[in-house]
Amino acid sequence: MDLPYWIARAVEGHGQWTSTFAPYERHPSLEISDDRFATVFENYEKLLHGNYPFFHPRYIGQMLKPPHEAAVVAYLSAMLINPNNHSSDGGPVTDRMEREVIDQLAAMFGFGSHLGHLTSSGTMANLEALYVARCLHPGRGVAYSSASHYTHERMTRLLGMDSRAVPADRYGRMDLDALEDVLRTGKVGTVVFTLGTTGVGALDPLAEAMALRERYDVRFHVDAAYGGFYSVLAGTLGLDPAPWRAVRDCDSVVVDPHKQGLQPYGCGSVLFADPSVAKFYVHDSPYTYFTPADLHLGEISLECSRAGATAAALWFTFQLLAPTADGLGEVLAANRRAALRLAALTADSDRLRLHQEPDLDIVTYFPRRAGDSLSGIGRACAAMLEEGMHDGADPVFLSLMRIERDAFAQLHPDVRADADSTRILRSVLMKPESETYVDELHQRLERLSASQGKEG
Ligand SMILES: *Cc1c(COP(=O)(O)O)cnc(C)c1O
Question: Is residue 83 part of a domain?
Fold first, then answer.
């Protein structure tokens, strides 16, 4: 699609629509001359270009990429109107779009009845799930794995809830024996399972854990902020279907369309299996008889104002690339194939060593030559990151992640454990373009690790 054409078309269409209303004069206080605008714009553009090239397949650092052009055009056209999805009066059209995309997300996870809404982030979405958990299990705490997102620790503190970090195994997945030990105390009311940890993209063993839910009368919340859309590929491309099939029997789930759903930032979501939890949000006099459909979105959300444009962009994107295997799934499948290929090339490499097989699309590795000690690995990885980022002619953008000594030792017992932890390289292959670029990328990583060997 031709982005300049559709942007111009969106602006033009907006002008046509606004001109159907009675004419009025624009206030002079808002007028800015093209000259002044140009001066500020030129400086602004220079500043913007100080960013890293998130769009490029050589950027495999953090979970960052531009939105799909469809989302950009839809967001822009809705933003020109600027509806507020706080209420159906504030966003009469985008309110309906939000309900539709929430239904699509619920169907993706296999939720039947449900209550849900978009949020400004995964953090807000998780906060809402934990808030409802607290309402339903007052006085009982929250357990999450030590590899879960740091937001859970922070949010439970904010909510004044007790929290327990359950150890993760060597692959970064929650250890269920340790979880059961925690549940036996009776002090935990909610367990957070992560499907796609932010570090290595690990999937907690949710299916195996399901029996614990009734045995200990606890809520199960699924944080799939990063990985959630991979549920459409469950059972294909080596993706374990079991945890995804178990989501439908959980109490709440979070997924961030601004991570893998091709959306600009400001788009998270939370879904509850039981629509009656709406009662914990209602801020007015208690409604004794209501159906969730009667409630404004602002009445089932902790946030008040929310951009209708966010719902519009997601709705429009889903019209073109639905959250199904043959829509958005095709994008994710390319990410997954790229990750599998990079993992295979790394496992075969003389210079690089694979840390673990990817559950999703995040590949972790370190240079072999530095592989005799934890401290040596940490230094070499940091040097590779620095050199890759600052090589103007042949750059590659990487990121690091800390691994604790014991977890590392279980996977690589031959490495001398001369430190409490180390840092390894972590590459997020969340752009489908990685698929055709992955061999080139791998060669660049090989060269980078070779040059570390020389200097070190
Ligand atoms: C990114 C992420 C979050 C936080 O979401 P934000 O949208 O960044 O606030 C929470 N949990 C997981 C697993 C994540 O990957």
Answer: yes
